[in-house]
Amino acid sequence: DVKVTQSSRYLVKRTGEKVFLECVQDMDHENMFWYRQDPGLGLRLIYFSYDVKMKEKGDIPEGYSVSREKKERFSLILESASTNQTSMYLCASAGRDRPYGYTFGSGTRLTVV
Amino acid sequence: KQEVTQIPAALSVPEGENLVLNCSFTDSAIYNLQWFRQDPGKGLTSLLLIQSSQREQTSGRLNASLDKSSGRSTLYIAASQPGDSATYLCAVSNDYKLSFGAGTTVTVRA
């Protein structure tokens, strides 16, 4: 069964900490994405990557960075966590060719205190 | 910028009733439209994907239609069950990025 795996379901971090969220896919997909989901705001794209070592900013990249050293792994980094980054983080992957069907991970609920 | 709207925001029906969920989008130049299901506190599960050249897709009790020219899609769920209670999200892609609607939260009463 193909899947996208996020390393943690729940995380609690302190303000100012550097936080790493990891995502691994086993579908050999070129495209990988990080979204955050907040009540009333829906899903918003933070960053995406279309190839190893390649990345592009999404709609809300401020306060985040990403790393993609291997095709199957895409990491989201909160350089200095703040309380307004408390959210559900969702990773997804999609192939290079149309129709670009997305597969999502199970999400990481991050709380910054 | 693509805008995706889902109506209604919430829906409560008795078990056995058919469900009709609506999705509209502003830019008809889409590659595909995908319906997802999300249970509380969980990730997204893909239900159906309709490519831009298709009019509908079916999977079991689920049927999704696409009218690209009018910017609309409808998800039908036949003979609803309590296990269908969840939030249903519509998403469209103009390239390899998805734009999401806010979702319709469905409650099926036993």
The largest pleated sheet of chain B is described as:
6 strands, mixed
Count of DSSP H/I helices of chain B: 0
Greatest interface and its participating residue counts: A-B, 25 and 23 residues
The SSE string of chain A, one letter per element, is: EEEEEEEEEEE
The strand count of chain B comes to 11
- Give the DSSP E fraction of chain A (strand runs of 2 or more residues): over 45%
- State the share of residues found in helices of chain B, binned by percent: under 10%
In angstroms, what is the radius of gyration of chain A?
A: 13 Å
Show unreliable segments of chain A: none
* Helicity range of chain A: under 10%
Uncertain stretches of chain B: none
Count the DSSP helices of chain A. 0
What is the H-and-E element order of chain B? EEEEEEEEEEE
Shape of chain A: globular
What is the number of strand segments of chain A? Answer: 11
Report the structural category of chain A: mainly beta
How does this model look, in words?
The model of chain A has no long low-confidence stretch (mean pLDDT 93). Chain A is globular, with a radius of gyration of 13 Å. Chain A is an all-beta fold and 113 residues long. Chain A has no helices and 11 strands. With 110 residues, chain B is an all-beta fold. Chain B is built from no helices and 11 strands. In chain B, strands 2, 4, 5, 9, 10 and 11 form a 6-stranded mixed β-sheet that branches. In chain B, strands 1-3-8-7-6 form a 5-stranded antiparallel β-sheet, with no helix packed on it. Chains A and B meet through strand 5, strand 9 and strand 10 of A and strand 4, strand 5 and strand 9 of B.
